Structures are given as C-alpha cells and as structure tokens.
Amino acid sequence: MSTTDEIERTREVVARLHAELPRWGLVVWTAGNVSQRVVVGSEPGPDDLFVIKPSGVTYDELTPEAMVVCDLDGTLVDGTRAPSSDTAAHAYVYRHLPHVGGVVHTHSTYATAWAARGEPVPCVLTMMADEFGGDVPIGPFALIGDDSIGRGIVETLRDSRSPAVLMRNHGPFTVGKDATAAVKAAVMVEEVARTVHIARQLGDTVPIAQADIDSLYARYQNVYGQDTK
Amino acid sequence: MSTTDEIERTREVVARLHAELPRWGLVVWTAGNVSQRVVVGSEPGPDDLFVIKPSGVTYDELTPEAMVVCDLDGTLVDGTRAPSSDTAAHAYVYRHLPHVGGVVHTHSTYATAWAARGEPVPCVLTMMADEFGGDVPIGPFALIGDDSIGRGIVETLRDSRSPAVLMRNHGPFTVGKDATAAVKAAVMVEEVARTVHIARQLGDTVPIAQADIDSLYARYQNVYGQDTK
Amino acid sequence: MSTTDEIERTREVVARLHAELPRWGLVVWTAGNVSQRVVVGSEPGPDDLFVIKPSGVTYDELTPEAMVVCDLDGTLVDGTRAPSSDTAAHAYVYRHLPHVGGVVHTHSTYATAWAARGEPVPCVLTMMADEFGGDVPIGPFALIGDDSIGRGIVETLRDSRSPAVLMRNHGPFTVGKDATAAVKAAVMVEEVARTVHIARQLGDTVPIAQADIDSLYARYQNVYGQDTK
Amino acid sequence: MSTTDEIERTREVVARLHAELPRWGLVVWTAGNVSQRVVVGSEPGPDDLFVIKPSGVTYDELTPEAMVVCDLDGTLVDGTRAPSSDTAAHAYVYRHLPHVGGVVHTHSTYATAWAARGEPVPCVLTMMADEFGGDVPIGPFALIGDDSIGRGIVETLRDSRSPAVLMRNHGPFTVGKDATAAVKAAVMVEEVARTVHIARQLGDTVPIAQADIDSLYARYQNVYGQDTK
C-alpha cells in the first residue's frame, strides 16, 4: 500500500477510535487524543509519520478529514488545523520506541486519581496480571512544551511490562502495537484503577504471588483471542 | 425439539444475552461471557452440550452464528472460532451441577472489589435476602488453564443458597436454571455489592436477623413474579 | 371524565413514568414500581382505585395494557397479571393518606445505602431544604406480606415534611400529589442521598440553620415552577 | 446584527446548550440553568439583556421559543413563562462583571459535595492548572430571593483566576466570555471536583508548585485550541 493510501486508512482508524474514548467514559469535552504511526519504508524508523487529532476540537466534529499528519519531530506535514497540544509527547514515544504503533492520552478519572497521589496501581486482580503483567507505574511530573512528558513516558515504560504509565498529577498515557491496542489499554487501565480503588476503600486487598502474576501474564499474551490481540 | 433446533435457539438466546452485560455496565471491552446448557436426552447429563461466546471478540460482533458449541469436557464441537478462555470453568460447572442451565462470568467492578479483598458481601438488604438468601460467598484463588476455577465455583456454591460466587482476586461467576437467570444474578450481585459497599463507606450497616433472611428468601423464591422466575 | 376513561388515562401515565426509573438510574432488572390513585367520586376516599405495575415484568415490556388496577385493599380488580409484590404497601398509603395521589418504590443505590445503616440523610444542601424541608427520615424494618411496610411508611411520613422515607435495610418509598410528583421525589432523594454521601466521605459537612431551611422550604413550595409543581 | 436578530440567535444557543447539562450528567430533573448576555450597543453595558431558561420546565421541553429574555435587573422583557428562580443571580453577575458573557448554574454532584463541606478544590491536577489557574474557591452561604447569591459569586470570582465558584451548601456557578465557555467550565469543574475527590479518598495528593501552576495556566490561556477557546 502506498504511503498516501496508508495515511488515508490511518485517518479513518484514528477518527473512529476517538469515538471510543467518550463511549467508555474516558474523556470530557475535548480532552484526550489517539494517534497511530504510519510506517514509511520497510520497517519502523525515523522517517515515519503519525496521524493525530487536532487541538481543541469537540468529539462530535472528529472526521477523517479533520485529523492531522505529523512527522516524528511533531511537525505538521498535512492538515488544516493545529495538531493536539500533546503532539510532542506522542512524537517522542514514536521516535524512541519503534515497536509502538499507537499512543493514547486521556485524563480518565480513576487513573488520574492514582496519578494525583503519585501511587502505582498494585496488581491485585487476575485481569491486571493478564493485561499489565504487574503494577501500573507512575511517571514523573513534567511540564508541557518540551520533551519532558515524552521522556517521562519512555523512561517509565522501558522498565515495565505495562502498556500504561500514569504521569504524576496529569493522567494516563498508553501504548500498543497499533492505536486499537493503545485504546484497549486506555480502557483497561481506567477499569483496573477504578476496581482496585474501590477494593481499597474498605480495607486491604489480598496480594497475588509474583509467580502467579508471571504465569497469568505469559498465558494471556500467548494464547488469548483469535490470533490477533 | 431436535438437538439441532435447540442449539440454534440457544445460539440466539446466548448472543442476545451478551448484550445485557454492557447494558448493565458489567463488562468493558471483550471481558465477560454467558453460556447455556443444551440438554441432550430426556434430562441433564454427561452428553449435554453448551453454547458460549468465542474468545476475544467485541460485543458489537456477537451474532448467533459467532457463538460456539462445546461438550461438557469443554471441547469445541461446532463453530469457527476458539471458545472463550473461561470455557473449562463453564464446562466443569455443567458437569458437576446438573440443575444449572446457565453460567455467567464478568469482572463487574464492585463485585470484583469485594473479591480483591477476599471478603463476602454481608446480607444487609432485603433484596439480598430475596435473591441470594444470605451473604455472597468468596471462592478460592485459582489459576486459569485447568479445572481449578470450575472446582472452586462448584465447591463454594454447593454449600450456599447464593447463585453467585466471587472468585478471589478475579471476579463473579453466577449460575441459574438457564442463562437468563444467570444474567439476572450477575446484574443483581453487582447491584448488591455496590449498594453494600457504599453503605459501609460511612459506617456500620444494621444486620438483618437470620430468621428474617430465611423468611424473605422463602417467600421470594415461592411467590415472586409471573409463575416463572 | 368517567372512571373508565380515568383508568385508561392513568394506565398510560403509570406505564410512561416507569420508564423514568431506569432513565435516572434508580432501578435494575425488574425492581421498582410506580402507582397512581384513581379518585372514584368527588374527592379521595375508600372507594378509590389505583394503577400499578405487574410483578416480575421487565421495563421493556411495560405498556399501558400491562398495568393492573387494584382497590384500596390491594385486591386486583382489572388486569391479567399479578400486581407488584409491593401492592399492599401502596394500598395502605392510599387508604391512610388521602392527599397522596402517587407512590413510588425503588432500591436506588445511595438512598438504600443510608437505609442499610439506618441513618437519616441530613439536610445540608439548599436543594434538600427546597424539596424535603429537612432530613430524609428512616422508617422501621418491616417484612413484606402484611401491612407492616405500609404502616411504617405512613407513620414516618406523617411527622415529616419529606415526601420520601428510607425503609431500613430496604430502600426508599416516595409520595406526591400524583405519580409524577412521587417520581420526581424518587429522583431527588437519590440525588441528595448521593451528594451528601460524597460530601461526608472526606469530612464533616457544614449545617444549614433551621431558620434558613424553613425559609428555603416555604419559598420553594410557594413560588417555584410554572403554577404547577 | 440587530438586537432582535441577536436575541433570536441567542435563544437558539441557550436552548441548545441546556442539552449539554444532562448529557454530561450535571443535572437531574429541571435543576440547572444557562444564560447568555445580549450586548445592546457597541460594548457591554447596563442596557444589555440576557436569555435564560424558564422556571420548572423539563429538559425535554427546552426549545428556543421557550427561552425568556430579561434585562440586567432580572425583569422579564420577553417570553410567556416565568424566568428561572436563579435569574436575579445571573443578572447581578452581568451587571457587575462586564467581561462575562455567559453564566451557568448546576447542582453537579461532586462540586456540590465540596460546597457542602465549604472546602475549596485544591489544584493538584495539570488540567486544573490549565483551566482554573489554581484552586476552585468557595463562595458564602446565601439565601435565594435577593442579591446575596449574585453578590457572593461576584466577590469570590473577582479575586480568582477560576471561572467557577462553589456556593456553600448550594452548588457551582460558572462564567465565561459566552455561554459555551461557561458550560465548558461547568463540565470541567465537576470533572476536577470528582477526580480530586477520588484521589483524596485513599490518601494525600501531591501538590503542584505555584510556579508550575502559573506556567501551565499562562500557556493554556494563550496557545490552546484553534484561535478561539
């Protein structure tokens, strides 16, 4: 498929996936954004592009044509609107993590609440072991406007099985092999943040042994689903 | 009705009931599954089959044709997709509890939160006495992949009036005379888990005397509804 | 209008108002019921009738024709299905409180949570002063099957400005001049139960002086809305 | 555009924006109201008008024609129904804050819960720094019926970057350059009130340094969105 065709297809995917964010209650108003890498050449590399939502546009207005295309420096290469103010963070992740094909950012309530306390979500649910392989980690506090958010995401996720990081006082960023996988991780991180929060409200949770976490994670990553995850 | 016709009818019922899970907020993404027994012969027995959802398929894709059919060892006998990864647990329940005609599994938030603490939901609501006849019990921690989840469900429910068990660190499994009754139990267990959780957040709940629980349960099981429950 | 016409009109009103209960999140599955008095003669009296939902029927099936008509002893006088299992309580209220034209019962979550602790909802919101004129009171624990629920409702509401009572370990019953007003009270009691619960989770609420509560209540009952409330 | 045309256009805007309140879960039944200033002359002044919802009308009935027009004393100048009972407060704000073009009032749950404790929402989220530039302040307790609510709003907002004030024991009022901006502030104040509430339920939140709050606020107010906010 030509890069032009791939960009068109990716605009449709990214526009459609934005609708999943309000559907699952992850965003209000215009907060939150989804992007997906467009590989230019035979494998992921520095010449890749990505498609992302423009800034300050409501979810009712999100069409494929409204999406914008950026290079891996975060510079707009196609589109009539300014890209999302989180574009630099997405670009940094694509530059430094070639296996990542999709990135999602939300301020989903329970995940952001753990981020406001700077506390990782402990792995006390079998579905967390399946999906995250352990705790959901906390990233550093970082101001918007340079590479510090992107760097915080990459440094935190490099040492973790988790496809989600909770940036301190800010909210979750999630990654995946494509934007669909990153959206799934955004849905699941809010779900486990909410369930563990509620469990902890009335007392201590029962830990899961590390060996059991490892066993659940290995099985789920290998056999779940219909060939694709 | 022939077994073939019964399987077709059951595929429709099971597909339709899966839509109840997101409708009542019990599942996100592809989590959760519903199954119903197909009696082969004059009464429930080891040659029965059951219809269940395939693995890793979203709720928007759930048609009667997509459902799969398994025998009571959990082996796929009809269908083009892999059965749910929880199939072995459903099969174990049907093998060991002949009066059970439907099984449901979810990770509904409040029920799963009690499961993460390993704490039964105490019977402090008249609607719990009606529907559950007492506390909602906790089942053991069990890894997926062999009979341990099914065995934990059966051993816990055998000694209880409750049609719901909260598997530790995992989530609720519910049973009923058919899949509709098991879905109702899945909806109700989340509702009572949520209400009692909220009650307990601000202090102690008032217990209901055992004799009153028994009286409410006996009345409800005998006279409620329009002949069928 | 003839009693027959009035009954037909009331069947439509009561069927339509049942849809408000799931719309506002007050009920799950088949729980909850709405009724409205049909005055027989020139003013409310012992020969009146009321229209109520049948027992154990889902909210998707609630048509005017499905509604049933009872006399003030709770005996079915028109309809093909058994009346709601809460019919005796509704009948008792209509028999003893002639100014009440509508009754609603739900197990809405936050109101039921206060009921499970046996704790009145304190009047710490101006909208509570407006609508309830003070605290929302707790009624006694009562078993279903005789007059004890109805008697508990009437004895509690007689001494209160509140159109809502939280029956202990059970849930809210609300009353009004008609079923619409009782449904509004059911919506509002859940809203204030929820808001005050959340306020109390993080500390003490600020009381409102009794004179201010009285002033807000008097104003609201006299001047709010477009002539009708 | 003539004042008559401007009024017609504003009726449409205000009617449409009321639908945002239930959409985002900010109101139940008939609570909550939105208004927008109509500038009469070359700049905002004492001869301006504003469009607001009538009193006690459900959200399903809100058409442009149902909206009412008042002058800045809160006197009805066009419309067939009584204006909202909160009209005096809206009028006071427009009289005293000429840069305010829109006002919204709700009883949204989490914002009202902070108001019931009389406790400001601390700025511990980057999105709060962006949108509110600091804590969300508490206004005084005030009875309805004279200028005391309006005066409380104006005195509190004059000394704050926040477009939202939580009136004690009552609920949030928000302002903006137009009604759309005030509705956005109403949605965001509930979101941050909810997220910080949930964060605080399990422990202390991490503060954000004042310099970082200032930096985030300055950036967001200057560069976010597509020219308009």
Lay out the secondary structure.
The structure is a homotetramer.
Chain A lengths: L2 H16 L1 H4 L9 E6 L10 E4 L15 E4 L4 E3 L8 H10 L5 E4 L3 H9 L8 H7 L5 E2 L8 H11 L5 E4 L3 E6 L2 H23 L8 H14 L6
Parallel strand pairs in A: 6-7
Antiparallel strand pairs in A: 1-2, 1-5, 2-3, 3-4, 5-8, 7-8
Short synopsis of the structure:
4 copies of one chain form a homotetramer. Chain A is built from 8 helices and 8 strands; from the N terminus they run H-H-E-E-E-E-H-E-H-H-E-H-E-E-H-H.
Characterise this structure.
Four copies of one chain form a homotetramer. In chain A, β7 (about 165) and β8 (about 170-175) form a beta hairpin. In chain A, α3 crosses α6 (about 150-160). By secondary structure, the first copy, chain A, is α+β, with helices and mostly antiparallel strands. The first copy, chain A, has an eight-stranded mixed β-sheet, sandwiched between helices. Chain A has helices at about 5-20, 20-25, 85-95, 110-115, 125-130, 150-160, 180-200, 210-225, and strands spanning about 35-40, 50, 70, 75-80, 100-105, 140, 165, 170-175. Chain A contains eight helices and eight strands; from the N terminus they run ααββββαβααβαββαα. In chain A, about 50% of the residues are buried. The model of chain A has no long low-confidence stretch (mean pLDDT about 95). Chain A has a single domain (about 5-225), classed as Class II aldolase/adducin N-terminal domain (L-fuculose-1-phosphate Aldolase), CATH 3.40.225.10. The interface between A and B is medium-sized, with 30 and 32 residues. Chains A, B, C, D: Its EC number is 5.1.3.4.
